């Protein structure tokens, strides 16, 4: 497996992977309602975000995306047939290292507020701490996780 920095010409690949997942599935239309479009992702990549694509034999199989200004992981997604192979963990490590290299000491993310969801357990397994449920905005009801550099 190889992990490389995503570029503008990878945006369609990011959307293809994002809309392929089974758990936390969202269509392109649903994602667009949240303001996530190819144009907004291009702007993110040109400013304060980093994104990484995992590949096997030049086939994109997963990605992570993070925002330095907001100090947040926007998402980690892996094609269903490649789940459970450590790809998400490796993508998370690349994103975390990116934050630490920028001197950021604490980062956060949001996920569904159901401990039975794979993502919820995945973040806990990687030493992310659930700190509370979001109470307003588009992500009302989502669990906020945080991680400090030293954890």
Explain what the structure shows.
The longest helix has 15 residues. The protein is built from 5 helices and 7 strands; from the N terminus they run βαααβββαβαββ. By secondary structure, it is of the alpha+beta class. The strands form 2 sheets. A 4-stranded antiparallel β-sheet has the order 1-2-3-4, with helices on both faces. Strands 5-7-6 form a 3-stranded antiparallel β-sheet, covered by helices on one side.
Q: Give the distance, in angstroms, between the N- and C-terminal Cα atoms.
A: 26 Å
Strand content: 25-35%
Query: How many structural domains in the coordinates?
Result: 1
Spans where pLDDT lies below 50 across 5 or more residues: none
Biggest sheet architecture: 4 strands, antiparallel
Instruction: Fill in the CATH topology.
Output: Aminopeptidase
Helix content: 25-40%
Shape: globular
Q: What is the CATH H-level superfamily?
A: Gcn5-related N-acetyltransferase (GNAT)
| Rg from alpha-carbon coordinates | 15 Å
Write the element-wise H/E pattern from the N-terminal end onward.
EHHHEEEHEHEE
CATH architecture: 3-Layer(aba) Sandwich
Total number of helices: 5
| Number of E-state strands | 7
Structural class: alpha+beta
What features would you highlight for this structure?
alpha+beta; Aminopeptidase; three-stranded antiparallel sheet; 30% helix; globular; 7 strands
In short:
The protein is an alpha+beta fold and 151 residues long.
